[in-house]
Protein: Tryptophan synthase alpha chain
Amino acid sequence: MSLHEVFRDCATRRSAALIGYLPAGFPTVPDSVELFRAMVRGDGDTPGCDVVEIGIPYSDPVMDGPTIQAASGEALRNGFRVRQLFDIVSAVAETGAAPVVMTYWNPVHRYGPDAFARDLAAAGGLGVITPDLVPDEADEWLAAARQHRLDRIFLVAPSSTERRVAMTAGAGSGFLYAASVMGVTGARDSVSGSARELVRRTRAHTELPVGVGLGVRTAGHAAEVAEFADGVIVGSAFIDRAGQDGAAGVAEFAAELGRGVGKSSTPAP
Structure:
């Protein structure tokens, strides 16, 4: 299933897509596979995530807040290597959810953009979110992603000019990631008031779905964002729940968020 189909099916069900993030290999590779599966499974009544962001842990993050930094550091200390990413992607693809990778550019550059795109596509990955790569500096990646039919998912922010939003929308595919606040990632007490306006501005330039991230940590936040966005992105709050309650807590939290974005119950077989 493509990202286009995922968002289309969610819209048909009148729900926003639930997009969950965890770092690959957190706290270990086997544990992370179980956490991702729980994120998709939900609680048996309400399903969880439609799209799964699999983060590549990075030793020098520029956008990640303390929660993701700590989880990524734990994964790296426990021996995570980029080559293990593709087995995790395959495990997520087997759940029926749509796996995408979230990564800074340097790991892709070191692996080799074409080789990375090739191996990700072979594992069942659908696209890559590149938070520190802007479209006008992404020719090598755009070529590799197109060659291997991967979606190119770029970020827009409240500070983005109309020209920048239009350029980003034109280069992207799959969906656009709207960073609802300026600053690093992390759960917040409320959703930024700039999120709705950013989605409105972005939709003026594209028909791509728009997902909102940075700050969502409760089912109430998810419901609020689902009123105006096509996708609701949750990261740090999943890490917190995993640390507190393991896979069972992640599954329960995914179901809570699922109900928040408009999922009612597990679809009939």
